[in-house]
């Protein structure tokens, strides 16, 4: 089976694809949502933040306000699912910024499994092979996206956000699995090489990405930091 074609696999948003500039990207994963505590399959199931998750979102906003103080412009872009909207809105209140929303930043779809008990999916899930085409692997669940489907749309969303953003700080609010492909896009990993990559991050965390002024490098400064206590 051939690798993704250029038509379905966009290039990563390296300088040249998007304008190079010094900037910091704060990649945020939404905090605790109702599907976590109810042990339901998340994906694109449209759950809400729990009370603890809403408090964590406020704490994330406070942490990001401290980190972006004095910045020449901050933007927020988020997945349009309710739990990420609620997180982005809380951060936006702290930063006095109105978020924008991009459905391409949604979590991977698990098709007919979404909203069902996690044990239902666990009994049917077909794990990807250790070797072979992991990007197009069928997990055995009707309507579920492949890793390739997820990577393509997240790369496109990351490219759009970086190209449209003109300030010093960009906040991207997404989900645990989707966050891996924001980081992979940031470092310039071609999609056809992303079959095994993962950056495990907890819910309610910040991953800090920075493009420097002198060398023009794209750094991964920290991964999955939780800078608050509840």
What can you see in these coordinates?
The protein has 230 residues and is an alpha/beta fold. Helices cover 31% and strands 15% of the residues. It contains six helices and six strands, in the order βααβαβααβαββ. It has helices at 34-37, 51-67, 82-95, 118-124, 147-164, 176-186; strands spanning 23-29, 74-78, 100-101, 169-174, 206-211, 218-225. A six-stranded mixed sheet has the order 3-2-4-1-5-6, sandwiched between helices. Helix 2 packs across helix 3 and helix 5 crosses helix 6. The termini are far apart. The relative contact order is 0.23. The model has no long low-confidence stretch (mean pLDDT 95).
What is the terminal separation in angstroms? 48 Å
Secondary-structure element pattern, one letter each? EHHEHEHHEHEE
Could you give a short account of the major beta sheet?
6 strands, mixed
* Poorly predicted ranges: none
The geometry reads as globular
Helix content: 25-40%
Q: What is the subunit arrangement here?
A: single chain
Structural category is alpha/beta
Rg of Cα set: 17 Å
Mean model confidence by pLDDT: 95
Strand order of the largest sheet: 3-2-4-1-5-6
How many helices? Answer: 6
- Number of DSSP strands? 6
């Amino acid at each position: 089976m051939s690798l993704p074609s250029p038509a379905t696999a966009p290039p990563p948003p390296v300088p040249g694809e998007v304008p190079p500039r010094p900037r910091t990207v704060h990649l945020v994963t939404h905090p605790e949502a109702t599907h976590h505590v109810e042990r339901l399959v998340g994906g694109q199931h449209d759950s809400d933040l729990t009370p603890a998750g809403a408090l964590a979102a406020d704490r994330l906003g406070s942490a990001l306000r401290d980190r972006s103080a004095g910045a020449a412009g901050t933007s927020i872009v988020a997945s349009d699912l309710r739990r990420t909207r609620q997180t982005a809105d809380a951060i936006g209140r702290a930063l006095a910024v109105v978020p924008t929303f991009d459905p391409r930043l949604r979590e991977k779809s698990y098709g007919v499994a979404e909203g069902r008990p996690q044990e239902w999916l666990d009994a049917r899930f077909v794990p990807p092979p250790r070797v072979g085409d992991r990007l197009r692997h069928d997990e055995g669940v009707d309507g579920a996206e492949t890793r390739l489907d997820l990577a393509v749309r997240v790369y496109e969303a990351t490219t759009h956000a970086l190209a449209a953003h003109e300030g010093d700080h960009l906040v991207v609010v997404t989900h645990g699995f989707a966050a891996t492909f924001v980081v992979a896009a940031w470092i310039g990993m071609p999609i056809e090489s992303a079959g095994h990559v993962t950056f495990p991050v907890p819910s309610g965390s910040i991953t800090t990405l920075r493009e420097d002024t002198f060398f023009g490098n794209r750094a991964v400064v920290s991964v999955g930091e939780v800078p608050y206590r509840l």
